[in-house]
């Protein structure tokens, strides 16, 4: 997203800054590797060589929810063993000899790691290639009094979303059968109207568990 300067249509003597979507193709591994604390585009997506009925390239958007904390300084002699931590997102050309970003043997000799992820990024072209997105996520949780008796998960989300982006011609969820609509003149206890009304019969194989109690609850 960038800002462009245009004259205000209602007052041409004034200028306004208007946001504009600028599309760029990241055609090499170096361009598609984003350092941990560097800026990255708000929208990043993989585009396929096919289009939907609207003429847009089918693809998937990578939307990151959380980022890992500070990375080990690169001047550290152990850093190459976990050099995947340099990046919050890196896209590379898929290779059979690069199946994982690290190895369990790295912990045995981090000074001479058997797998150094930094070597994966060598400015190869990623246009019209099978790609791998290496996504680093994480969060920092320092224990505190409110973790007793259990840690609240709210605010501790970690992960990323892989979302269809022009992949379908419309919202695919409209075909999902989990939405149920009843009218006032329908009997919701009838199996023909409400399939869940027959659930006790169809789910009769579920074991009959005794009520569970804990300290009076």
UniProtKB/TrEMBL annotation:
Q: Which organism is it from?
A: Sphenodon punctatus (Tuatara)
Family to which this protein belongs:
Belongs to the copper/topaquinone oxidase family.
Q: Supply the EC number(s).
A: 1.4.3.-
Q: Which cofactor does it need?
A: Cu cation
Binding note for cofactor: Contains 1 topaquinone per subunit.
GO BP annotations of the record are:
amine metabolic process
Task: State the taxonomy lineage.
Answer: Eukaryota, Metazoa, Chordata, Craniata, Vertebrata
All copies of the Copper amine oxidase catalytic domain together span 11-173
Record-linked Pfam families? Cu_amine_oxid
Q: In its keyword annotation, does this UniProt entry include tRNA processing? A: no
The protein's name is: Amine oxidase
As recorded in UniProt, coiled-coil segments are none
